[in-house]
């Protein structure tokens, strides 16, 4: 299995935080790895994709998303979130408002990468 926190290079360099299909015990550990990775890769112009497809919703997950969003908001230029359900969309809007994120919900990783590539500074 590929690492859940990594840089993908196409169409532009994007930090992928892959939280897809996680249940709470693994989710908490993965979010901790996300935070460490973000601390070492932030450049204020970077782009972040977060995939939450088929993630089991528990109380720890919204807290983890909010905390990660707050941390990445000051470190990266734009964020795309993949796999958001209608209920998660409500949470996403609240988190993006709270953290002042430049954020877009996308149906899949390809569309998220395409949108993020338009957010790069020329």
Topology at a glance:
Elements: E1 5-8, E2 14-18, H1 24-41, E3 46-51, H2 60-73, E4 76-82, H3 86-99, E5 103-106, H4 109-117
Parallel strand pairs: 2-3, 3-4, 4-5
Antiparallel strand pairs: 1-2
What does this protein look like?
The protein has 122 residues and is α/β, with parallel strands linked by helices. Helices cover 45% and strands 21% of the residues. It is built from 4 helices and 5 strands, in the order ββαβαβαβα. The protein has helices at 24-41, 60-73, 86-99, 109-117, and strands spanning 5-8, 14-18, 46-51, 76-82, 103-106. The chain has a 5-stranded mixed sheet, with helices on both faces. Helix 2 (60-73) links the parallel strand 3 and strand 4. Helix 1 packs parallel to helix 2 and helix 2 runs parallel beside helix 3 (86-99). It is globular and about 35 Å long. The termini are far apart. The model has no long low-confidence stretch (mean pLDDT 78).
- The biggest beta sheet, please? 5 strands, mixed
Secondary structure: helix percent: 40-55%
Structural class: alpha/beta
Topology, number of strands = 5
Q: Count the helices. How many? A: 4
- The percentage of residues in β strands lies in 15-25%
Q: What sort of overall outline do the alpha carbons produce when their principal axes are compared?
A: globular
Our measurement of the CA-to-CA distance between the termini, rounded to an integer number of angstroms, reads: 34 Å
Uncertain segments are none
Helix-strand pattern: EEHEHEHEH
Strand order of the largest sheet: 1-2-3-4-5
């Amino acid at each position: 299995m590929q690492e859940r926190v990594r840089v993908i290079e196409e169409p532009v360099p994007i930090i992928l935080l892959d939280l897809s299909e996680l249940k709470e015990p693994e989710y908490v550990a993965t979010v901790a790895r996300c935070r460490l990775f973000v601390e070492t890769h932030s450049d204020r112009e970077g782009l972040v994709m977060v995939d939450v497809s088929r993630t089991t919703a528990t109380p720890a997950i919204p807290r983890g998303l909010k905390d990660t969003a707050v941390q990445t908001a000051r470190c990266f230029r734009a964020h795309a979130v993949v796999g958001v359900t209608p209920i998660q969309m409500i949470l996403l809007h609240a988190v993006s408002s709270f953290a002042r994120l430049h954020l877009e919900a996308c149906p899949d990783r390809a569309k998220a990468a395409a949108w993020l590539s338009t957010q790069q500074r020329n």
